[in-house]
Amino acid sequence: MILDPETLPKPFLSRMEQILGREYPAYLASLKEAPFKAARINTLKHENTPLPGFDMIPSGFAENSWLIRTEGRLGGTPEYLSGVLYPQEPSASLPVTALGVRPGMMVLDLCAAPGSKSTQIAELLDHSGLLVCNEIVRKRAEILKENIERHGIANAVVLNSTPQKIAASFGAVFDAVLADAPCSGEGMFRREEDAVAMWSQENVLFCARRQKEILEEAAKCVKPGGRLLYSTCTFSEEENEENVQWFLDAHPEFELVEIPGKGHHGTAVLKEAEKVRRIYPMDGGEGQFLACFQKEKSDDMPRTSLPVLKSDPVPKCVKAFLETELTRSFPVLYVHKDQVYGGTHAFIDCRGNALLRHQTYLGAVSRDRFEPSHALALSAYASFVKQIDLNEEETEKYRRGETIRKSCPKGWIAVRAKGFVIGLAKSDGMILKNHYPKSFRIR
């Protein structure tokens, strides 16, 4: 939306003028411009080049983050439904970039919903290591799970727990921890009317207190030598620089790591203000603050390993299906009460935390037959051998849950729109029986 600065709370504007000084007029002018439209290309599924039919230019915040100049919504396109394209405000991709994720790491995303940063972490892990993503609110955790599955991630655990329980359960085992904390949302004013309506100085202070609690628990999860990235999408010093200074004073085992690139340094409230980053709308993003902490190494660090779940025996029908119907099998399988999961990492015991998804849900065994899942169809790790392309009209029918008359090989088959897999169907050779999830269907 186009935002009239005159409608913003006067105390907020007064504070922004004090923070920005001579750049304050540029900030006001930027609010009157349309919000940035951007997305990441899921490099687990597609090479990082502009997609056909889209006018795209690099955003400069992450290698696979692109500004989209094409008109129309991204949601509902085959690129989105297949998990190839993830809409994300451009500067929101900077925290994961600054975290320094590499393949093989153990990574925790502590406040993960709706999943934009978790999916970005998974792209950098490239099916190796393990991603634990958590969301405290159940409804938002379900959205997180949906986005993880659409992205086709084979090495992610989705939890619905509290930061306190996560820290107590796992301890200092993570190479990298992201605490993208809930905030007052001042960086989203141009996108969300509710963010403006809900703003108050009281809420700013409430958020700052809650963020300290989250940071305290996040610190317990970082192993010696590891990194903790703290980020918000707001501009208040109470939630940003003041919290960073408080954390450094309380945790001498951590030090700030400088974050280069686009944007501004922090304010003088923080002693090492040049090491943190502020992004404003005139910098090419809606609004972000981020600080990266490095934990000191320890020569006597004890080796910590997480307990692994014991699987039921893998049924023969599952083995046969995975060997014949997929381009490759998952390195690790886990079976529990006829529910089958696959992944690239050992299936860890999540120690009492509410578990919504453990790596990839492959399907279920019923009457000695294996029924594959929608999540398996969208996997970025293993593809179905049999695939079929639908035209635009057939794609609409598929998304409505209708059967489609089409000659194709018998059996389970992945359905593609514009060349991207969006779901699963079962064919008798002439008719495709629809297996698109009812919750995703259009009316």
C-alpha termini separation? 28 Å
> What count of domains describes the coordinates?
2
Q: Report the CATH architecture of the largest domain.
A: 3-Layer(aba) Sandwich
- In the CATH scheme, the class of the largest domain would be Alpha Beta
> What is the oligomeric state here?
single chain
The helix/strand class is: alpha+beta
Structural overview:
With 443 residues, this protein is of the alpha+beta class. It folds into two domains: 11-295, Rossmann fold; 316-346 and 356-440, Nuclear Transport Factor 2, Chain: A. Helix content is 27%, strand content 25%. The protein is built from 13 helices and 22 strands. Strands 5, 6, 7, 8, 9, 10, 11, 12 and 15 form a nine-stranded mixed sheet that branches. Helix 7 runs parallel beside helix 9. The longest helix has 20 residues, at 201-220. The radius of gyration is 23 Å and the shape is globular. The two termini are 28 Å apart. The mean pLDDT is 96.
Main traits of this protein?
443 residues, 5-stranded mixed beta sheet, Rossmann fold, 13 helices, Nuclear Transport Factor 2, Chain: A, 9-stranded mixed beta sheet, globular
